[in-house]
């Protein structure tokens, strides 16, 4: 019932919610596929040749299973954090009301998104350093750019969202004061 009302009163927000849902589902599928193939490759090493979209870590697995597990664990964790961030965005768009946009719940969700974004950046930086460390020690690694890039963007996004969360908290205070004076 509430969904139907939101579609009628705030169709733009609901359309954005549908788009965010699709990104969230895509990230969940990607994370699940990498995780499944990672676990499967531990029992069937041939699977390490094509873990996900051509990702071939078979040379690393042949050299050291622990480092192989470390790299893939960090990749899975990063993707899971990204999916969680989009889940929080879904919750924001489902809770927000354009008539009274400032609420404690939405403010808290925005703060959580900024924290998750910075966590993603830190994990990406750590993974990049770990991969560089492995390469210096002679481990064969393919280009992992799509799985280890974007730290700067996530830091920047985290800072911007943090600033938005502070503005949102101030808006919540002003909205509360206005409700008390009316």
Automatic annotation (TrEMBL):
Protein name, as recorded: DUF2975 domain-containing protein
Region forming the signal peptide: none
Keywords: Membrane, Transmembrane, Transmembrane helix
Pfam families the UniProt entry points to: DUF2975
Ranges annotated as spanning the membrane: 12-36, 74-94, 115-135, 147-165
Naturally occurring in which organism (per UniProt): Mariniradius saccharolyticus AK6
